[in-house]
User: Fold this.
Amino acid sequence: MSNQEVTYEGWGAFGADSVKGNFKWHKYEPKTFCEDDVEIKIQYCGVCGSDVHTASSGWGDLEASGMYPQVVGHEIVGEVIRVGSKVKNLKVGDIAGVGAQCDSCQACQWCDAGREQYCAGGMTGTYGGKFSRQEEAKGQKSYGGYANFWRGPSRFTVAIPEGLDPAVAAPMMCGGATLFSPLTQYGAGTTAKDVGIVGIGGLGHFGVLFAKALGANVTAITHSDRKMDDIKALGADKVIVTGDDAKAACKDHARSLDLIVCTSNDPKLPLAAFINLIRPGGTFVLVGAAEADSIPKVSAFNFITTNVHFTGSAIGSPTTTIPDMLKFAAEKGVKPWIKKYDMKDVNEAIPAFERGEPRYRFVLVNPHHGGQL
Amino acid sequence: MSNQEVTYEGWGAFGADSVKGNFKWHKYEPKTFCEDDVEIKIQYCGVCGSDVHTASSGWGDLEASGMYPQVVGHEIVGEVIRVGSKVKNLKVGDIAGVGAQCDSCQACQWCDAGREQYCAGGMTGTYGGKFSRQEEAKGQKSYGGYANFWRGPSRFTVAIPEGLDPAVAAPMMCGGATLFSPLTQYGAGTTAKDVGIVGIGGLGHFGVLFAKALGANVTAITHSDRKMDDIKALGADKVIVTGDDAKAACKDHARSLDLIVCTSNDPKLPLAAFINLIRPGGTFVLVGAAEADSIPKVSAFNFITTNVHFTGSAIGSPTTTIPDMLKFAAEKGVKPWIKKYDMKDVNEAIPAFERGEPRYRFVLVNPHHGGQL
Assistant:
């Protein structure tokens, strides 16, 4: 166990235009290392839509809140290089990951139940947040994974199991867990035999892969037919192309699904048409949120006459969902489709991400830390 | 078993102004009596908000659809005077009731599962509907309980158990079942210990009574304090008075409830404030629908950050919920607060209902058919 301090450097977002190819490599001061912390030499970091929403101030003006510069990235995998004296789940040399949340109060009923993402008061995002639980780190900013190192509370760091490529594990830490969590919560493949995934992008492709591996019949629901070949290759059993008239496109499929997980963040989402795809008693789960995030207009009768449930789901728990997901992915050979970029090329990767190029997840790689390009 | 035809007479709504004291007593032709039908000599009929919404064309222009005259009323209890040869659940002389639904396809998976209110294609309302399943009655209109007699499919008629006053059983057939169904579906008193009821009117008062009898801690959520004494007498443990600032009123009660059943049909319902009252993973169930029935504006983040479920629930099943509810009410001595009107005074009762006078449910009585005033 080494206690030597390493120098933190990473790609900083200094303003909303960072996402247009203007991230700047800079040194910064990480949180104080605490006795329940783990420090990771970053090998891989997935690129998540949240990174762009945050860095560009789409989810809140970071200029006004004094939260620039940001180091975004919350799909982090690397080698453990330091553990505090209270850490039990990892040791130096392990390969471990951290997702979008890096701390919680660790004391409320939701934390106790392995639902840390719904913690009553101590949620700390892996970037753009402030630590509050640990006395020594109170008020310090959290920094993410477009960087050389990361440190934070061990409860939120998870060992990557044997047999799972750490490069594909990285985008599972947030994107994968965001889909695996509602799919398993609502019984995909068991009580929910017929599962729909709305939006086949980074999140949605995880939805198709995991729902299929869980044994469900999978319907991909997509706006256009341009990804049709990919969708079939991912394993979808059926595709609904909504085009410009979702109501008409969905009409012949009424009450054909038990569960829909919706990754679209379109503020004009044809929600009523999608609700009608679901069998009475079924569930529609939103995992994407538009920057202007009101739920689209929908009629109360849509719900009263069907008993369909509308809900949302946030990421995945590091003590329940994420370990289960990684084990499941290793066992079933679930393989997300990734494209690797050397982390030094972040100012190419993010504009390409913004242009909608990922098929289906970008992963930044630190080759000098053992990441494989 | 008598097969003699009786003459049907009832209070007809001939136009939207019927609810202003203009119901007219008239003769009409009921559906053809079929071998799985039951005929009831009406003793009691509860007054439900749906009666007024329908008779006044608030839920659809009955003039345009050719559905005037209407005989509304779907909380019917009386004596069975005739049963078809295929009827197994009732015999002549029994006291039986029918609620808001009087037929379904009786063949789909939802009917099979005792969820007839979500039937895939054959839902017939007790009034304002048309029969479709029975060949002999196909296309005939359904007429409700502001009348001397009622007839319809036996699957939807339920025996009133010993020990339950038929007068209080009447408003349970729709209003009671509408609350008992979601309360039991979502575990009030068991998995949902803390239950909120929004809106303390006819439906809401059933909510407080049943939730309390089921063993829940009950929070009544009401717009003003004018019903405070009633609410306490009904058994609520806590009251939240929202006034004009629901957000402020609810703030100190965040995450205090497992389940809310909302009987309000206010199009300006402060939904976001109510969602925040619910613990992560809990459920908000809408059972009221405004005439302009869009769901109030609410943020996707309200759901994503809490995993709260928004759903709706319609009435109750005649094969599962209603029999269970009647048995439960008889055993626990659940007593709705009713005010009786002689059915001949319907043109006094409905305007009083429209003025918001019920504390909390009106019941029309046919004394010449054995109803007790």
